[in-house]
Design a protein that fits this description.
The complex is a heterotetramer of chains A (289), B (316), C (419) and D (256). Chain B has 316 residues and is mainly alpha-helical. In chain B, 70% of the residues lie in helices and 1% in strands. Chain B is globular and about 55 Å long. In chain B, 66% of the residues are buried. The C terminus of chain B is likely disordered. With 419 residues, chain C is α/β, with parallel strands linked by helices. Chain C has 2 domains: 231 residues, 3-Layer(aba) Sandwich (Rossmann fold), CATH 3.40.50.2300; 155 residues, Rossmann fold. Chain C has 17 helices and 14 strands. Chain C starts with 13 loop residues before the first helix and ends in an 8-residue tail after the last helix. The N terminus of chain C is likely disordered. The chains are: A mainly alpha (289), B mainly alpha (316), C alpha/beta (419), D alpha/beta (256). Chains in contact: A-B, A-C, B-C, B-D. At the A-C interface, helix 1, helix 3 and helix 9 of A face helix 3, strand 7, helix 8, helix 9 and helix 11 of C.
Chain lengths: 289, 316, 419, 256
């Protein structure tokens, strides 16, 4: 039993890391632009299919490198053409727009690549477990965690030590002041959106390797990411990261004891957080109320 | 002047709704579609009571719609074989859920409120989807049907006569919409609009914002539940899709498309949306793409909705 | 690619349709004459989008092929056959039911066809029965459709889950062992299939040592697989379908479970095997139809036609759609009428001609249940195609449907005919 | 007895102390002005009185009752009304519509689904009174958003008056106005003050308004009470002069 627990906690951390990757992108966009990006799951799916197409031509690692970039470019374009006109308007509009965009992306993937699941090839040396006992630690999943950790570290480095990152962080707190200081907030929001979508694309390219490709791939991952953000606290990326990991572990553990509630559990957590600590675990008080 | 216009609008709307079974087929519709339109319009108008007239965005109203549907279906199937009792239980279920969820999130605003409603909405989806022994899980609740209403001296044949069921739906619609219209025309409704227009000013006029928003939320969820119950009775079936987040988005888009600030806007939005979906899905398998495009176009070009003129409901 | 090619639009004669509906309410004879001059309509209320879009698409290809053949051979009662297609979605029973009602009331379809999703099929059956329209369910497997909730007017091509379980159980017990663990999708089909497997397994002395119900559309099976591994079964049974099957099997193989225990299941589909990476194409399964049957006449012709139409080999789904439409046409021509009761009586007990049955022992609709009984194909998944890239299944045993379908009494079907 | 009695109130925002141990009493019928350089804590002080947030320490008594921790709604119910630096009205409604909401709320009808004839008449009469008092009768049916800045301010003040407050708090009523509008608003305030015998407390930058209207003036600087007295006393106070001039010189530092 204790082994089962241990396995599921560690396994939960692995899945949690994946949720966190998706939630971080979502959170960045929400923090700076106030846009709840419903299409985030759609972008993730697109990233996965981009990776699928590229992998046949330039191999697994090439695909992993390029696919997220392609997704990000599309993200930049979408922000520029569709999202930008909505800044300053009720968040309702951007929510509805991305909601519709999610329809288009998911259905578009189905139209282009068909409704079935094309097979995705991962290098053989990554596909087997590293140890017979810890069989759930496959090469691929360890690789995925390493990549997620690297990506998150890089993200926090960018946000804390580069000019772009510092501006994004400042803009998250007070965009107006930032713009009076002569920073071009349009470009800033554009790049930030692209960065968020890049993370979605990366999550997608990774998901292609351990989940089956299907047009609905990203949709099921979207809600846990929302919950991760609220639990972690709006406005705090560290909180989002924590929220994602917590959700992964909670789902893993519930699956052992009461599998029927394995999806509902995160919403119970959400309810508790809203009652006990409305601003979320690491959220700033009074933000976005 | 404005009052006169509204008066005419009311007459036209009711004339259309009352006569639609007799001419809808000539323009390519059918009775079932008309019935669906009335039901979704009721849900969208209930949502708009909150969204358009209180200024609070809920993106999780499908949950209450679905709870109404499940409450109705399960009651009729397992507890009391009565259409009216089923519907009442459905509405009650949605209302109680609305009270609890409302109390949990009422202090949040804007994006935070929207996200919390989305998330809580999904909780009910997962309960319906996984609690197999009660809800039938993904398969939904079938093998029951709406029953005739026994008035003692006569039976209303709801089940076998879809036309009768249409008018039953329309009666419920009229009661609920009438109640909302009455409220919006009175001081309570004006307090809600005050909150929408300027929360700070409303607060400093002594209006208890949380209490008012909560009541508005509960009214909205109760009527949404009624609509859900009516849909369950129309299909003689419910399944978890009736409370999935997709539907929440659809209800919002109906309200926005028709015009959030207009009382009848969501009805128009629902009619257009359901009709579009019907036409598109029978002409192309790619209909969801087009629905998505409709969303985008509505946001970019129909900011105020089709009936989006400024409506000074608060007259002197 | 998109389904646009060959997607025939329902011809909407607005005024005429409108008149028909209005007239139907007062039962005017005008409608009947107007209808007689029209085509014979098949209402295709099946998924085109969502999780079942792939099987739905393949069933549609088979159906379109059948329609073309029927029309080339003179149609139905001298009238042309027409397919009226609308997306039922993969899971929204409200849509499926509404579409069914519309097709019957407004489009005046003579047959209602669907649905891959059993829950939707059950909802549609209720409407079809209420309106006394012949319904053909090509690919929804829940036992109750031709069992506890059977109707005189509802027929089915694909097998019951119990039949599939009975077909595979002996092999698994014999070759691998008696302790089975289940990964079961949490909906009627999964529950029925598991119940069938447990029953078939118990009859041969095996036991269920554990299992989990996994929600439809689960993407990450790792937590379930960790539990399964801890239970140390002889056989790990996957009853998931479609993308769920792909996800579950793919992850099980990545975890190396195929080396620790035997992976198997009941229903398998070529669509799913094609979505798996080669190393994850493992295990023992049942297919309900397979395109490689060199000794069965007409199969090669059918394969050629489907290849020409879609560029892919037919799957069981293609055959379901094909046989479903043809059965309806045969019923009408046999009954010399489009009256649902007459057609249903004709269809009951009917043996399909070999060019439609496309299986070694023939196929027939068992009266009293309306279930098609044909062959089942037990075998193993192949990492890579033996004869061509699509030949991903090695049939080891062709089972006679009559041997595994159980008795009529076991199905629980009690049919009542309209007075 | 004083109407408003504020004892040793402070407010901290993290490390920043916005208001530091300020005490003050306002007598019934008085018009009290609060002035002070930018960042002196005037608005924070004002917001504590009206109930945006409670003080960190200290008490606020109103009409003999401790209201330190009450919500804005509760304070309104006890007879406190306020306006804002940036006019807070219902822009999409007519002037009469704005007043109607205020009047109905004041009459305790805000939860009522509908009104009876007597109540409707009562509301209509009160709206007419306020329209007359605010000199707004001509524009009664115009949309508020389209009115001039001065008229919008008048609407806001009349909405506050609708509550029949015991005290009216005005946050920079003349902010952003031209000379004529400033003059009009001053006249309106004076009228309200004199005719209705209303206690008023206002924060204002425009010294003409302050010295013209106020009975007593209180000066805040760096969150603390600097001086208090009649307009004449304040005008001659060296401390005040110095504070204003000194601040002016150091403005750059303060803004940062």
């Amino acid at each position: 039993m204790s082994q089962l627990l241990l396995f599921n906690v560690s396994n939960g951390l692995i899945t949690g890391a994946f949720y966190a990757l998706m939630a971080l992108g979502l959170s960045m966009i929400l923090n700076l632009s106030g846009v709840i990006n419903f299409a985030h799951g759609g972008f993730l799916t697109l990233g996965a299919y981009f990776a699928y197409v590229l992998q046949q031509r330039i191999g697994f690692f090439g695909a992993l490198l390029i696919a997220p970039m392609m997704t990000a470019v599309l993200g930049l374009l979408v922000e520029r053409v569709l999202i930008r006109p909505l800044y300053g308007r009720d968040p309702l509009y951007s929510l509805l727009l991305t909601f519709g965009l999610a329809f288009i992306l998911v259905d578009g993937v189905r139209i282009i690549w068909g409704p079935g699941s094309p097979p995705y090839q991962v290098p053989e040396w990554l596909t087997s477990p590293l140890s017979a006992t810890y069989f759930f630690l496959t090469g691929y999943r360890v690789f995925m965690v390493v990549l997620v950790v690297t990506a998150v570290a890089a993200l926090f480095y960018v946000l804390n030590y580069t000019k772009l990152g510092l501006r994004i962080r400042a803009g998250t707190k007070d965009l107006e002041t930032l713009s009076t200081l002569g920073v071009n907030t349009r470009i800033l929001r554009n790049l930030n959106f692209g960065l968020g979508i890049y993370l979605a694309g990366l999550a997608g390219a990774l998901a292609a390797g351990f989940l089956g490709l299907s047009p609905a791939l990203g949709t099921s991952l979207l809600m846990p990411s929302f919950v991760a953000i609220i639990i972690g606290g709006l406005g705090s990326l560290l909180g989002t990261l924590l929220g994602g990991l917590l959700i992964g572990v909670a789902v893993g553990l519930t699956t052992v004891f009461y599998p029927a509630a394995s999806e509902a559990v995160i919403y119970v957590m959400l309810g508790l957080v809203l009652v006990l600590r409305p601003r979320g675990l690491l959220g700033e008080e009074g933000r976005l109320h | 002047m404005n009052g006169l216009k509204q008066h005419y609008a009311k007459i036209i709307v009711w004339a259309i709704l009352l006569t639609i079974p007799y001419w809808f087929t000539y323009v390519g519709g059918y009775l079932g579609l008309a019935n669906e339109i009335v039901i979704y319009a009721l849900a969208a108008m209930a949502l708009n009571f909150l969204l358009g007239f209180t200024g609070v965005l809920s993106f999780g109203h499908a949950a209450f719609f679905g709870l109404g549907a499940y409450g109705t279906a399960l009651t009729i199937k397992f507890l009391v074989p009565s259409t009216l009792v089923g519907l009442a239980v459905g509405v009650l279920t949605a209302t109680v859920a609305g009270m609890i969820i409302g109390a949990l999130i009422i202090k949040r605003r804007g994006v935070y409120f929207a996200m919390a409603t989305i998330a809580f909405g999904q909780l009910f989806f997962f309960i319906a989807n996984r609690w197999n022994s009660v809800t039938g899980g993904d398969d939904g609740v079938g093998n029951w049907h709406r029953l005739p209403i026994n008035l003692g001296f006569a039976k209303i044949p709801l089940f076998h006569n879809s036309l009768v069921y249409y008018y039953f739906t329309l009666l419920m619609f009229a009661l609920a919409v009438g109640a909302m219209g009455l409220l919006l025309d009175g001081p309570f409704g004006r307090s809600l609009m005050a909150i929408r227009e300027n929360e700070r000013r409303a607060r400093f006029l002594g209006i208890n914002i949380e209490l008012h928003v909560w009541i508005s939320f509960v009214i909205s969820t109760a009527i949404c539940g009624l609509a859900g119950g009516l849909l369950a009775l129309l299909d003689n079936f419910v399944n978890p899709r009736d409370l999935r987040f997709d539907l929440s988005g659809v209800l919002v888009v109906m309200a926005v498309m028709g015009g959030m600030r207009s009382f009848w806007g969501p009805l128009l939005g629902a009619a257009i949306f359901q009709w579009l979906r019907e036409v598109l899905s029978s002409h192309t398998p790619n209909w969801q793409t087009y629905i998505g495009i409709v969303f985008v176009l509505v946001v970019l070009f129909f900011r105020r909705g089709i009936l989006g003129f400024k409506l000074s409901t608060v007259k002197s | 690619m998109s389904l646009n090619n060959g997607f025939k639009l329902p011809r909407r004669k607005l005024l005429q349709g409108g008149a028909a509906l209005a007239a139907a309410q007062i039962a005017s004879p005008f409608v009947l004459t107007a209808r007689a001059a029209d085509t014979v309509k098949f209402g295709w209320d099946n998924p085109l989008t969502g999780v079942y879009a792939e099987p739905g698409k393949n069933e549609l290809i088979g159906a379109q092929l059948a329609i073309a053949q029927i029309n080339a051979k003179g149609g139905i009662l001298g009238r042309q056959a027409e397919l009226v297609v609308q997306d039922s979605t993969s899971g929204d029973a409200g849509v499926a039911v509404q579409v069914a009602r519309k097709m019957i009331d407004q489009d005046k379809v003579n047959f209602l066809i669907g649905n891959v999703n059993s829950a939707l099929a059950i909802g549609m059956a209720q409407v079809a029965n209420e309106k006394s329209v012949l319904m053909m369910d090509p690919g929804g497997h829940s036992d109750t459709i031709t069992g506890a909730t059977c109707h005189w007017n509802v027929f089915r091509i694909c097998n019951t889950t119990q039949t599939e379980a009975n077909a595979i159980a002996p092999t698994l017990i014999k070759d691998y062992g008696k302790k089975w663990y289940y990964i079961t999708p949490d909906y009627a089909f999964g529950h029925a299939l598991e119940a069938g497997m447990v029953k078939a397994c118990a009859a041969l002395g095996g036991t269920r040592i554990g299992g989990d119900l996994t929600p439809l559309g689960t993407s990450d099976y790792s937590a379930y697989l960790i539990k399964a591994e801890a239970a140390k079964p002889d056989v790990l049974i996957f009853l998931t379908q479609g993308t769920d099957m792909i996800n579950a099997l793919k992850q099980a193989v990545q975890f190396g479970l195929d080396k620790k225990m035997n992976l198997a299941g009941a229903q398998q589909e070529l669509e799913a095997l094609e979505g798996l990476p080669p190393e994850a194409r493992v295990g023992n399964w049942v297919m309900e139809w397979y395109y490689k049957q060199p000794n069965v006449p007409h199969v090669a012709d059918f394969n050629k036609l489907v290849m020409a139409k879609s560029g892919k080999v037919p799957t069981a789904r293609t055959w379901f759609g094909y046989a479903g439409i043809w059965s309806c046409a045969l019923a009408a021509n046999g009954a010399k009428s489009l009256d649902a009761v007459k057609m249903a009586k004709t269809l009951q007990g009917m043996h399909l001609p070999p060019e439609i049955a496309l299986c070694p022992d023939g196929a027939f609709f068992r009266a009293g249940q309306n279930q098609l009984i044909a062959n089942l194909y037990v075998g193993k998944a192949l990492h890579t195609g033996k004869d061509g890239p699509d030949d991903l299944f090695d049939v080891t045993d062709v089972v006679k449907g009559t041997a595994v379908a159980g008795t009529l009494a076991e199905t629980g079907c009690k049919m009542t005919w309209p007075a | 007895m004083s109407l408003l009695q504020i004892d040793h109130v402070s407010r901290h925002f993290g490390k920043l102390i916005a208001v530091k141990d300020v005490s003050l009493t306002v007598e019934p019928g008085e018009l009290r002005a609060i002035i002070g350089p930018n960042g002196a804590g005037k608005t924070t002080f004002f917001n504590m009185i009206s109930g945006f947030f409670p003080p960190t320490t200290g008490t606020i008594r109103f009409d003999g009752e401790d209201i330190t921790r009450l919500t804005p709604e509760q304070r309104v119910a006890r007879g406190m009304a306020r306006t804002f630096q940036i006019t807070e009205i219902f822009p999409e409604l007519s002037v009469a519509g704005n007043l109607r909401i205020a009047v109905e709320s004041a009459a305790g009808f805000r939860m009522k689904p509908w009104l009876n004839g007597v109540q409707k008449k009562l509301v209509a009469e009160r709206i007419d009174e306020l329209l007359t008092l605010g000199n707004l009768t001509a524009s009664a049916n115009n949309e508020v958003g389209a009115l001039s800045h001065g008229d919008q301010r008048a609407v806001e003040i009349m909405m506050a008056m609708a509550l029949r407050p015991k005290i009216l708090l005005l946050d920079e009523p003349a902010a952003g106005m031209g000379d004529q509008e400033t003059y009009d608003v001053s006249r309106l305030i004076r009228r309200v003050h004199r005719d209705q015998k209303l206690t008023i407390m206002l924060v204002e930058h425009d010294m003409r308004v302050v010295f013209n209207l106020a009975d007593r003036i209180m000066v805040l600087a760096e969150g603390a009470l600097l001086a208090e007295g009649t307009p004449d006393e304040i005008a001659q106070s060296d401390v005040v002069q110095q504070a204003y001039l000194g601040k002016e010189a150091d403005l750059g530092k303060e803004a940062a």
